[in-house]
Amino acid sequence: TPQLEVLLRQVHSLKKVRKATAEELVKAQDRREELRQELEQLKQQKEALERTWQQVQESLKRAQLQGKEVEAKGQRLCELCLEQQQDQEGTKQQWEQLKNLYREQRWQQCQELEAIMEELKHLRVSHTPAHLQAELVKLEQMKEKWLSLERRVRDTEEQLGPEGAVLWRLMQQEQEWAERKLEAELGRRQLSLQRRDRLAEELQQLQHSQEARPE
Predict the structure, then answer these.
(1) Domain that holds residue 166
(2) Reported pTM
């Protein structure tokens, strides 16, 4: 009948709608699962980003602390360099003072050596005990001055360190040179005195022999 056909068509249409609805529901469920998985991935990515951000924050804090430590260390090094520079300037002043003192002492020693040389030359002619005694006194005074200068240089050497040791070696070389020069001159003086004694002895023997001759 027409009514039955209409009902059949409606049922058939409802089945199609139901089937389409079921398919849409399946698709919606699939999409829902996809969205759930995407949401889970997004959560995981968010957690990973949060951990990374936290690590970045911690690294930044460590870098800031290290920067402050480096800055403080740099400040300490600058202060230390400034102190060392000031110490070096003070050491240079002491070094200059010591060099000036050494030059002055060396000049005085040269003057005294020249004076002693003149005395020795004079002794070759006069050979008097007074000159010999004066020479010995001057030599003793020079020795005392050298010992005093040696003590002063040693004291300064302890303050200056390696530079003082270099200066002390120079002083020793100069002193050894002066001592060798004096020893050589004294040796020549001793030979001259021995020759004088021999001549005096020969003269005395000659006088005795002349006195012993019969007239």
Answers:
(1) 93-212
(2) 0.32
